[in-house]
Specification:
With 791 residues, the protein is of the alpha/beta class. Helix content is 41%, strand content 14%. The chain has 27 helices and 26 strands. Keywords: Aminotransferase, Pyridoxal phosphate, Transferase.
Length: 791
């Protein structure tokens, strides 16, 4: 048969079900819904490097080594006459253990012969203890290797049609409930309703009794809390089967390696297996994908599903840089969860600094992003700047204050008010426009659309624009809309503006880096990244790039690369997120924006007026003219969907700020390039002066001797200097303290490591005199550290 993915098997299995099968499987889906929800929003972090060789999946459980941390089942009522034998034989070929139900339709001896290795028996507490003793004895005689006892309510009320539990035949000494005949249990046979025979309470004395009569290793399933795990251990359990992923870390911490911990419920892919291992499990029980494979193609389908899950597990290990399944730890998880709770050892000691029962929090109680170094970057730079106020700073990438006049704000707002009046709005309507919230998508969209046509040759309808609180909010809205689950990934050029990676961190969005070369992003590298992600079962959704004078490197994408990038996006059916805040504050005529070249609505454009008008306005925008089609066939613009998200975030962008920006645009007839002609000339001069002074202080011969170099941007605010020593927080502090000059470590801007020997210089905020003195200090610092012995 043709090769199928796990998704294919799930789809084909759904199509082939009858009503009874669908009802039976729906109960299993409901039981595992909680675990599925957690797995769908939990991803894996990409490791710094792939393991040196193929990752090791072999796992030792209960003294036996299996090919992978997978236990097949427990399975009963498999809808096909040969179902259980097919599963057992396919699992034997895959080198995996199988859990067989007490209500199996095949004898234990027959299944054991097909397995050619120990099976595990899955049972519950019977009301009649003699039945339990009989089953365990029969399983032991057949060569079974363990017993899995599930506590609590039965998930499925009945066996599937045609399933006859032959191991509970007439010779089993079961006393009928309430003294009635077994045939009165009804259904498809005397045992079609197994719940009538079972004890559904969590009966710990019953567990201890079974432990006393069971010579096989005993695993306790149905464990949902650390307290349950502790009690199971005290009752003599040789293993724990946790039922809920959210409490798995706490259960694993309670068990503390004293026995294996398995997870049951919701496992559907290889990545789910690794998430479970990283959360504290030693292995998982695989049920639903096996059923799908069986329903579609019998034994061959089961074998293909098992092979695919193991293959995906290996791919996940490679992706995270983990050499073996045994090495999985919580650091692999992208979505933070509540940390594992320590076993209860009595009341905690009183903390000296905080009285009990306060609202104080631990850092671990907060979202994991708040502890990420990306969010600490700006705080550290601000701290260093304040500590060394006399140091000349090449760190802040902000506009030069000399171009701002306080009275301009009033003039801009007045120009916008006059515009509204000229449009025929009454005084009441003008007052409402300024004092009320206004439309979520913004009230100056027409003015922004006119400006894009005038300055960028970009013709988009005003309805495709959402006015945002700076470009940062635009990034959050786009990420939230496009990323739908842990298999979706967001590609970024690297080094990359920390705002986009920070936004991704807040939204638990996995970012993959496409490394910039000296002349910018290579389309070949971009395509390789797309193919690599898809090979690992992930879906690249969009690619973030700053094509003009990028932050932080200062590189500019060539015209040829722009055209190739758009063509690549079309061929691979993904979006480009364009962010170019430095285009109109740089000298010369810029290359066409990606959006202006976009003919297939592949580009989402982020815009900001922070550099072109003034940062304090906090006004940006996003152009999202992509069409969105609903399940009912109705269409909308992506901008409409972004506005819905914005309504739950900032509600709207300040009407006062919009008025100031709109007034500036109106005064320049939409041509920001004309409004910024003088600043662009200033910034161009600053960049050329910095490059000239660097060359004067570190001429080519000296640079070659020291191992130092830099790029030469033609515009924008930033350039990159490569140095032979680690450019980190420690050397930055030394630079400020001993040499009186500040800069930014480039390592902050690499999402997946890099930039350890590079610094970012921003030239926009300094006067000519500060550039001359600052570069002299910087040269002395670079020379001193480059000639020191490296330890």
């Amino acid at each position: 048969m043709a090769a199928h993915s796990l998704d294919d098997y799930a789809r084909l299995a759904r199509e082939g079900r009858d009503a009874v099968q669908a009802e039976f499987l729906a109960a299993e889906e409901r039981a595992s819904a909680g675990n599925r929800e957690i797995l769908e929003r939990t991803g894996l972090r990409q490791g710094p490097a792939e393991p040196p060789g193929p990752p090791e999946t072999a796992t030792k459980i209960l003294g036996r080594t299996w090919s992978a941390p997978l236990v097949v089942g427990p399975l009963a009522g498999l809808f096909r006459p040969e179902g259980e034998l097919a599963v057992v034989r396919a699992s034997r070929a895959a080198g995996l253990p199988v859990v067989v139900s007490a209500f199996s339709g095949r004898t234990f001896a027959e299944l054991s012969a097909a397995a050619e290795g120990p099976l595990w028996l899955h049972t519950r507490l019977f009301r009649d203890r003699g039945a339990a003793r009989w089953l365990v004895s029969r399983a032991q005689d057949a060569g079974f290797g363990a017993v899995v006892l599930t506590l609590g309510p039965q998930q499925h009320a009945r066996l599937a049609p045609g399933a006859v539990p032959v191991n509970l035949a007439e010779d089993v000494p079961i006393r009928p409930p309430s003294g009635g005949p077994l045939a009165d249990l009804g259904g498809y046979g005397p045992f079609a309703d197994p719940s009538a025979l079972l004890d559904h309470t969590v009966d710990w004395p019953g567990v201890e009794w079974l432990r006393s009569v069971c010579p096989l290793p005993l695993l306790i399933a149905g464990v949902r809390t650390p307290e349950d795990a502790s009690r199971a251990l005290r009752s003599g359990a040789d293993g724990i089967v946790a039922e809920t992923l959210d409490t798995l870390p706490a259960i694993a911490a309670t068990v503390a390696g004293r026995c294996p911990v398995l997870l049951r419920g919701g496992i559907g892919r290889g990545a789910d297996v690794l998430v479970s291992l990283a959360s504290g499990a030693d292995a998982v029980l695989l049920e639903r994908p096996v059923l799908d494979g069986l329903l579609v193609a019998g034994r061959e389908g089961v074998g293909a599903v098992l092979d695919e899950v193991v293959r995906e597990l290996r791919a996940a290990l490679v992706f995270t840089g983990t050499g073996s399944a045994a090495d999985a730890d919580p650091g692999l998880l992208r979505t933070g969860r509540t940390p594992a709770r320590e076993p209860d050892t009595g009341p905690p000691a009183r903390e000296a600094a905080h009285p009990p029962r306060t609202g104080d929090l631990r850092k671990s109680d907060l979202h994991t992003s708040v502890g990420d170094p990306v969010l600490d970057t700006m705080n550290f730079l601000n701290e260093v700047t304040q500590r060394y106020p006399d140091a000349i700073s090449f760190a802040p990438g902000r506009p030069y204050d000399g171009f701002f006049d306080t009275e301009q704000i009033v003039t801009h707002i007045r120009a916008y008010l006059d515009h509204l009046t000229g449009q025929g709005l009454s005084p009441q309507a003008v007052r409402t426009a300024m004092y009320q919230y206004g439309p979520t998508a913004g009230q100056i969209r027409e003015i922004i659309a006119d400006s894009l046509r005038a300055d960028e040759n970009t013709d988009v309808p005003a309805e495709s624009i959402v006015v945002t609180v700076g470009a940062q909010e635009a990034m959050l809205l786009v990420l939230r809309a496009l990323i739908t689950g842990p298999d979706d990934v967001f590609l970024v050029s690297s080094p990359c503006y920390v705002g986009i990676t920070g936004a991704a961190l807040l939204l638990d969005t996995e970012v993959r880096a496409v490394e910039e070369r000296a002349d910018g992003v290579s389309c070949a590298d971009f395509e390789a990244a797309i193919e690599r992600e898809r090979a690992h079962g992930r879906r690249p959704r969009a690619f973030y790039v700053v094509p003009d004078h990028s932050n932080p490197s200062g590189t500019t994408m060539s015209m040829r690369a722009r055209v190739e990038l758009l063509d690549l996006a079309a061929r691979h059916d993904l979006l480009i997120v364009e962010d170019s805040p430095y285009r109109l504050v740089s000298p010369g005529t810029p290359l066409p924006s990606l959006k202006s070249l976009d003919r297939d609505r592949r580009v989402i454009q982020l815009g900001s007026f922070s550099k072109t008008i003034f940062p304090g306005a906090r006004v940006g925008f996003v152009v999202a003219d992509q069409r969105v089609t609903g399940e009912n066939g109705a269409t909308s613009l992506l901008a409409d969907e972004l506005a819905k998200i914005k309504s739950m975030v900032t509600v709207n962008t300040s009407s006062l700020s919009q008025a100031a920006v709109a007034g500036a645009l109106l005064s320049a007839r939409g041509r920001l390039s004309e409004l910024n002609a003088r600043p662009a000339e200033y910034y161009g001069d600053a960049m050329r002066a910095t490059l000239r002074e660097l060359d004067r202080n570190l001429p080519a011969e000296r640079r070659a001797e020291l191992g130092v170099g830099w790029n030469e941007p033609t515009g924008g605010f930033f350039l990159t200097v490569h140095v032979p020593f680690p450019a980190d927080n420690e050397t930055l502090t030394r630079s400020a303290q001993e040499f009186g000059v500040l800069w930014t470590p480039m390592k902050y801007f690499y999402p997946q490591a890099g930039g350890d020997h590079a610094i970012r210089l921003s030239t926009s905020y300094l006067t000519p005199a500060e550039i001359t003195e600052g570069t002299a200090r910087l040269a002395r610092f670079i020379t001193a550290l480059s000639t020191e012995p490296q330890t």
